[in-house]
Amino acid sequence: MTTSRSARLLRAANRHARLVHALACALMALPALLIAWDWAREWALNLLLAVLAITPLRHALVHASRRLDRRWGRRWADWNWLIRLRRPIGLASFFYALAHVGLYAAFDVGWDWSEFAIDLRNKPFVLAGIATFALLLPLAITSTDAWMRRLKRGWKRLHTLVYPAAMLAVLHFVWLSKPGVQRPYIY
Fold first, then answer.
1. Following DSSP, what letter does each residue of 129-162 receive, concatenated?
2. What is the Cα–Cα distance from 118 to 134, expressed in whole angstroms?
3. How far is it, in rounded angstroms, from Cα 40 to Cα 19?
4. How far apart are CA 165 and CA 140, in angstroms?
5. Could you tell me if 93 and 47 are in contact, meaning their C-beta atoms sit under 8 angstroms apart?
6. Model's pTM, two decimal places?
7. pLDDT tens track of the chain, all 187 residues?
8. Integer Cα distance of 138 and 183 in angstroms
9. How many angstroms separate the CA atoms of 44 and 87, rounded?
C-alpha cells in the first residue's frame, strides 16, 4: 500500500511537532521583527551621535564637578572610562549602518545594481546614506589597536571623518523623511 505524499507530510509534521511549532512562531514573529527594524534603523544615527557627545560630556562633567566643589570628578582622568566607550559605541553604530545598507540592498533594490544606480541618481537621500557608509567603513576597519599603531598620527586624522559622516547621516535622515515629519530635524 502506497501512502500519498500529503499523508507522509502530515505524519512528519506530527513526529516533529516542536520543529513545526518553532517554525510557525518564527514566521508569525517576522512582522514584529520588521516593525522592530523600522524602529531600530535610527540606532546607527543615535549611536554615531552618542560617540560624538562623549568628549563634550566629559568636559561638562569635569566642569560641573569643579563648580560643585566635588572631590571626585575634578580631573580629566576621572572620566577616562567615558573615552573607552567610544570604540564599542562607534562599532555598534557601524554595524547598525551595515544592517541598514544590507536591508536596503536586499529589500529595496533586490541586489540589482542597475536599480541601485537609478536610486543614486533619483534619490539624494540614498547618495547621502551611501556616502555616510563609505566614510564609516574605514573608521570601523581601522578601529583596532593594531591599526592605531600602524597609522600613528594618521589614525587621528582619519578618524576625523566621523564629523562629516555624522552630518551626512543627519542629512540622509532629513531627506528620506516625508514632508511635515518633525523628528529628523531634532537631530
1. HHHHHHHHHHHHHT-SHHHHHHHTHHHHHHGGGH
2. 19
3. 29
4. 12
5. yes
6. 0.78
7. 456 777 787 787 778 878 877 888 888 888 877 776 666 678 899 999 999 999 999 999 999 989 998 888 888 888 888 888 999 999 999 998 998 898 899 889 999 999 999 999 999 999 999 999 999 999 999 999 999 999 999 999 999 999 999 999 999 999 999 999 998 898 8
8. 29
9. 14
